[in-house]
Amino acid sequence: MKKSLIKTILILALVLLLSGCGSNYAHNSVKGLGQPIQKKASGQIKLELDDYEFVISKLYSYDITALVLSTHNYNGFSVDDKLSPRDFALGWGKLAEINDQHDFHWSQSGRWYHWKMDSWDEANAIGGTQVVSYNSANNHIIPADETVRTLIKTVKVGECVHMKGYLVNIDGMKSDGRDFHWHSSTTREDSGGGSCEVFYVESIEWK
Fold it and tell me: Using CA atoms, how far apart are residues 156 and 88, in angstroms rounded to an integer?
């Protein structure tokens, strides 16, 4: 009976650790999160998936510590869903610091992220839409291996995560001639179509 109880406690502790609970406290606002760090990179990764031959080209190394504003799962059968099973809307800087002080509404769908506030007065009070645009981004998460794939599934809104990897371009060709292209934004100052980060994640931890 005692051995069974100890085993149950150990399993629960492991689940809490992986889900970002326990020592990984789920923040609703975080101070002191700087801009993501990126440095020019090179190199390619070859991948075969769904009869496609992919070339994943490294553009920049990418190191980010950010508040998770929203998450969205993509569990379909499309090739992009298999490459990137989850998107994270991430915030840092001033936005992460004031996130719980204002009535932000975050959401994601169709590989986009969306936000709104209840009034323009409130938006102007934080410095306008530029503060949000320059301090947040939608990230298509490409897990580098099965360990990362498992960990990203446990990330929750309100947590602070530290991820390292690469911003990448993904180009694929299928045996029937169909092609696939998914190219990353490389600046935090863009918006609209093509402004999402295609993020090949090699490591993730909770802060």
Answer: 10
pLDDT in tens, 161-193: 999 999 999 999 999 999 999 999 999 988 888
Question: Is 189:134 a contact under the CB 8 Å cutoff?
Answer: yes
Phi and psi torsions of 12, nearest 5°: -65, -40
Q: How far apart are CA 67 and CA 34, in angstroms?
A: 11
Alpha helix (H) residue ranges in the chain: 2-18, 79-83, 93-98, 120-125, 129-134, 146-152
More confident residue, 126 or 76: 76
Residues with Cβ within 8 Å of 171's Cβ and at least 6 positions away in sequence, in order, are 54, 55, 57, 179, 180, 181, 182
Domain residue extents for the chain: 26-206
> What tokens does 29 get?
């606002």
Tokens of 137: 């981004």
Contact between 141 and 84 (Cβ < 8 Å): yes
The kind and range of the H/E element at 169 are strand 160-174
Length, in residues, of the chain: 207
Residue 141: per-residue pLDDT: 98
**Hey, is 18 helix, strand or coil?**
helix
> For residue 29, how many C-alpha atoms fall within 13 Å in the half-sphere facing its CB?
11
Q: What is the pTM of this model?
A: 0.84
